[in-house]
Design goal:
By secondary structure, this protein is α/β, with parallel strands linked by helices. Helices cover 39% and strands 15% of the residues.
Length: 119
């Protein structure tokens, strides 16, 4: 269950051969991106924040610390989903793709931190 490393990247950035296993971790499909252009290995909606948590957070930086706690609690209950993700990306770099404009207050940052603690 070992991935080489984990990185996050906006889905709007160019695809790179260094991306490894590319996973969209948003529950909603990003605007303006075709499935062909995304070049995904996986779209994992099950690992994204619950709709209730996503709506509560609403990309408000002031709520980010509380969002992190709540999202990590949700992730702790998704062991099977995380195991499957690690199996799918085994031996590769794992790139978590997200669409949020705010590059410092988003769920992909929290997800990466959570997954880094596991590997």
């Amino acid at each position: 269950m070992a991935v080489q490393s984990i990185q996050i990247k906006r889905i709007y950035e160019d695809v790179s051969e260094n991306d490894g296993y590319r996973v969209l971790v948003d529950r909603l499909w990003p605007r303006g991106v075709s499935k062909e252009a995304a070049q995904l290995d996986e779209w994992n909606k099950r690992i994204s924040p619950s709709p209730e948590l996503r709506k509560w957070f609403d990309h408000d930086p002031e709520k980010f610390e509380e969002f992190k706690k709540r999202y990590k609690t949700e992730l702790a209950d998704r062991e099977a989903v995380i195991d499957e993700l690690f199996e799918n990306a085994e031996g590769q770099k794992l790139t978590l793709l997200y669409a949020a404009k705010d590059e410092t207050h988003n769920h992909a940052i929290v997800l990466k931190e959570f997954l880094d603690e596991l590997i």
